[in-house]
Amino acid sequence: MKQALIIIDMQEAFFLDKQNYLFEAEKVVENINTLITSARNSEVPIIFIQHTDSNEDDDFAFGKPGWDLYHGLLRQPEDQVIQKTTWDAFYQTELAQYLQEQQIEQLIFAGAQTEFCLDTTIRNAYSRGYHQNVLVEGAHSTLDSHVLNAQQIIKHHESVWNNRFVKIQPRSFFNTK
């Protein structure tokens, strides 16, 4: 089954200001980099999704320091970068066409934010016929909300997604690739 690794919105904005740091950010980056290395070793295409906000004052606006993909990721020039303007990486982007052209059948997801862009993209991927998708524990994150802390948000979404929209794999998944 031909796979692609999709890394959503791992951008500098989540690392520039303490109040916007992702939960367990360093571990998440380490885990994503392990996934990237594994993908490269297996010749799995790597796709970085980059949120681009239309509000020029937003941290994710084109050209702002927070807009750049996080410098600590093991990104290479051959990796695909797709910009999006909504929570859904498929909406009005070239993602679906790229996956079809590459004959991708399984998506491996990582990134941020769990309850926003990751959730929306995971669900849309399933609706588009990608039913064998994977998410590795510790390879996605979010921020605390006014209702739940980041750890609760992650745990809740993983319980909703698992065996429905994705198959949640343990962190040991990194060592089996």
UniProtKB/TrEMBL annotation:
Entries under Pfam families matching the protein: Isochorismatase (PF00857)
One example GO MF annotation: hydrolase activity
Name of the featured protein: Cysteine hydrolase family protein
Keyword Hydrolase among record annotations: yes
Record keywords, A-Z: Hydrolase
Species annotation: Lysinibacillus xylanilyticus
Protein's UniProt keywords contain Membrane: no
EC number, as in UniProt: 3.-.-.-
Residues annotated as domain Isochorismatase-like: 4-144
Family under the similarity heading: Belongs to the isochorismatase family.
Enzyme class: hydrolase
InterPro entries on file: Isochorismatase-like_dom, Isochorismatase-like_hydrls, Isochorismatase-like_sf
